[in-house]
Design a protein that fits this description.
Blueprint lengths: L5 H4 L2 H8 L16 H7 L10 H5 L2 E7 L1 H4 L5 E4 L2 E9 L3 H14 L3 E4 L1 H10 L4 E3 L4 H51 L6
Parallel strand pairs: 1-3, 1-4, 4-5
Antiparallel strand pairs: 2-3
Helix pairs in contact: 6-7
Length: about 190
């Protein structure tokens, strides 16, 4: 916490933590998964809304509406075209939540919204600020397809193992039924007696 900015020091930090299943959080006074060190690096004045409201409200505030995992991978403050831009995070897991977060973001005073393509078409009709849709680059789609194939193949391998176990069980049950049938036949008609 002191002197470090987990998400800003190395953008791979939250990705690696997620891969290992480690939940990263911040203290009670560090909003939206961001360390106060980020404000020291990119902001001006105290990071205190009561004492520094004008500066904190100044500049462009852009809403990004997406999953928490995706939000954890982006920086909170950026400089674009020599202008400071603050990213205000709005996590959502459904299209309905994205639309609600978009309306909330407009009420919060953001200057624009970036969100998923389906929610963007709806939000453009209900808010009075610019809305930009996230675009999926080909490499992102290909990476997702590769991950899906790995899951499917892993699932198919697990099914094959279960099927093999089931096949062995069916064979064993069949063998037991055959033995019982032979015993019943033997009890009914002993060998050598008509």
């Amino acid at each position: 916490m002191w002197g470090r900015a987990f998400y800003d020091d190395d953008p791979k930090n939250p990705i690696l933590a997620d891969e290992y299943g480690i939940v990263i959080s911040t203290s009670h006074h560090e909003p939206m998964m961001r360390a106060h060190v980020e404000w020291e690096r990119y902001g001006s004045g105290p990071w205190n809304y009561v004492k520094n409201k004008e500066v904190l409200d100044h500049g462009l505030i852009i809403a990004v509406i997406t999953t928490r995992e995706a939000l954890d991978r982006i920086s909170r403050y950026l400089v674009i075209n020599n202008r400071e831009v603050m990213i205000k995070e709005y996590p959502a897991t459904t299209i309905e939540e994205e639309v609600i977060r978009g309306i909330t973001a407009e009420k919060d005073g953001v200057k624009g919204i970036i969100c998923g393509p389906i929610a963007a078409t709806t939000l453009e009709k209900v808010v009075n600020i610019p809305v930009i849709s996230l675009r999926f680059e080909e490499n992102v789609v290909l990476e997702a397809l590769q991950k899906m194939m790995q899951k499917l193949l892993t699932g198919m391998e697990a099914f094959a193992v279960k099927f093999a176990h089931a096949n062995i069980l069916v064979t064993l049950v069949g063998f037991i039924v055959l033995l019982l049938w032979i015993k019943a036949l033997h009890d009914c008609c002993p060998v050598g007696k008509p």
